[in-house]
Amino acid sequence: MFALVDCNNFYASCERLFRPDLVGKPIVVLSNNDGCVIARSKEAKDLGIKMGAQAFMNERFFRDNNVHVFSSNYALYGDISSRVMGMLSVFTPDVEVYSIDESFLKFDGFDYFSLQEIGLKMRKAVTQGTGIPISIGFAPTKALAKIANKLAKKRPETGGVYVMNSVERLEEEIAKFTIDDVWGIGPQHFKRLQAMGIRTVLQFTQLPDEWVQKHMSIVGLRLKRELAGIRTLDLEEAKPKQNIAITRSFNENYTEWDKVKERVITFATICAERLRAQDSTCRVIQVFVLTNRFRADQPQHNKSITMKLPFPTNSGLELAHFAVDALKRIYQPGYGYKKAGVLAMELAPAADTQRMIFENSDPRHANLMAVVDKLNHALGQQKVKLASQDLDRVWKMKQERLSPRYTTRINEIITISC
DNA sequence: TCTGGGGTCCTAGGACCC
DNA sequence: TCTGGGGTCCTAGGACCC
């Protein structure tokens, strides 16, 4: 059996951990730049606040309804996440961390144990150890475990743990469960299925294989098997990333070359930092610039360029240099740019780097970057920068309602008055 | 009249996930 | 004024190889 363990309203729950006064109150967490809502507590959902709702349009509504608003605090969420995932691995060695708030667990060889009981124990342990509420769904396949998890959430009487452990139970549930709520069915597939008159998971599993493969590719066919109870997907091991992207919207339209260039250099150095963190180099970079797509009245210019590097590297200096080269080829004066990004592609293990005949990454950079990483790690990110970066700039992202990094910065730790 | 067969690599685009 | 960021996998078609 597989289990899908999922943290309830994860970001909102994290914000509540050190603010017990917010228990039972509506909370929303905003995206970067405090742009739109990306997480909501149950109370906020009950107020009808939608995912992706724009923050500025709802200021008044938030105030009138005493909604507590937070900027996203990834230092906090990331740390709490690893604590939760760590606690889960006590119950089975087979864990796949699927996202910041979800893990798949495999329970092979547990035939003589009650999974319901194990699930309840996991919930208790995680709540006690971290304060984060979780829901757990057990089922014979990953796709069904996803469904079981939703049922655990939907039905309070389950105690947050739902075990799909009999054929009868499985058949009964998939006959009722609607297809739009299924892992792997996005808006496009849903539209097509709806047009075919397919409403439930059961109906989907009865479609001919050929049709599913033709319209939803092999991915859809695998999903069909999974939903029919045929184990097709297994746990996946953690692999180093294949691409690393740093992209940001700006706080305003940038019309000057120097400003855009500075951002691209900064993104490139962060990319390089992430490459080094997973011991990779990249062989290809992509740089893009975008104007504000929401402003139809302004001239638009969206351009990206992919560039093969003369040699693989993870040096911030070199990557910044190449990224500026790339930017020069796509940047056009006269536009107000709103967003840019740098992507590192064709990653390979740094240890396997093939030496080139004529040109190579400067070998001295490895030591230099190691020192930079060490300093930035100790003093806070982006303390040591390239001279071509804006040295005064801290992080011009709008983050007006950022909570403290309670668990990762000693000077931001919770204080208790007694 | 007839003009093969079997591959790989690359890119763009589409779909999905959190 | 303002509307996020970061990933993966698959397919089709073109260019090229022997």
Describe this structure in words.
With 418 residues, the chain is of the alpha+beta class. The protein folds into 3 domains: 8-74, MutS, DNA mismatch repair protein, domain I (3-Layer(aba) Sandwich); 77-227, Reverse transcriptase/Diguanylate cyclase domain (Alpha-Beta Plaits, 2-Layer Sandwich); 244-379, Dna Ligase, domain 1, CATH 3.30.1490.100. The chain is built from 13 helices and 12 strands. It has helices at 10-17, 42-46, 55-64, 74-88, 115-130, 142-154, 167-176, 187-195, 201-205, 209-227, 257-277, 316-330, 364-379; strands at 2-7, 27-30, 37-40, 68-71, 95-99, 102-106, 134-139, 161-163, 244-254, 280-291, 303-313, 337-349. The strands form 3 sheets. The protein has a 5-stranded mixed beta sheet. A 4-stranded antiparallel beta sheet has the order 9-12-10-11. A hairpin with a 2-residue loop joins β5 and β6. The chain is globular, with a radius of gyration of 24 Å. The model has no long low-confidence stretch (mean pLDDT 92). It binds a DNA duplex (18 and 18 nucleotides) through α3, α8, α10 and β9.
